[in-house]
Amino acid sequence: MGIPCHRATFLTNMIKVYLLHGAGAGHQSDFLQNFKQRFEDEVGLQVNPVTLDYMVQIETTGKMRPPPRIPKLVEEVQQKIDPETPIVLIGKSMGCRIIAELCASHNVQACIALGFPFYPAKKTDKHRLGHFEQTGGVPYYILQGTRDSLGNHEWVTEQNLPENVHVNWIEGADHDFRVLKRYNLSEQEVMQNLIAHCAVILHDYDIRR
């Protein structure tokens, strides 16, 4: 999309960045490993992955299991991160819901959501817009594929989102940021697009400080 990828100018001695995984794949997934490496290389900030306890069990035993309910996960993460330290939170899918809730208890400076699950698949009546009420005005940026089955372009653009919630669209991408062949974009090009958005978001944020 022609977005320049500038290194952010955050005060790295003050700001910590945390990354929360989704429901079915932890930080060992190719996507999150690639994202973490590219983010650190190009944005210039260290990423601290947060692995939830149920995911540790999955990775240890090799047996899939559903995650606990969101309130329990939020409580778990609250205990893992110091509430006073200025932080930037990045979430993938389910992790996007958790980081929104943490805005009410922690010193969150900005959030970046990689594929916000606005609703369960094909169940728009069970939307999850209520999470945004907990952000309390914290800048909350969503990077969303136009083909995301958990929040597509048509549905999301019809919603009245809070002023602090900003959606940036990745053309042709689904919930896992995979694109159809007709878009002629490789996985690395899509990842570069995501990282470029992150760099611009954090760079612009720092300018406003």
UniProtKB/TrEMBL annotation:
Domain of life of the organism encoding this protein: Bacteria
Keyword line: Hydrolase
Ranges for domain KANL3/Tex30 alpha/beta hydrolase-like: 16-199
Molecular functions (GO terms): hydrolase activity
Entry-linked SUPFAM superfamilies: alpha/beta-Hydrolases
Protein name listed in UniProt: Alpha/beta hydrolase family protein
Species per Swiss-Prot/TrEMBL record: Marinomonas gallaica
Organism phylogeny: Bacteria, Pseudomonadati, Pseudomonadota, Gammaproteobacteria, Oceanospirillales
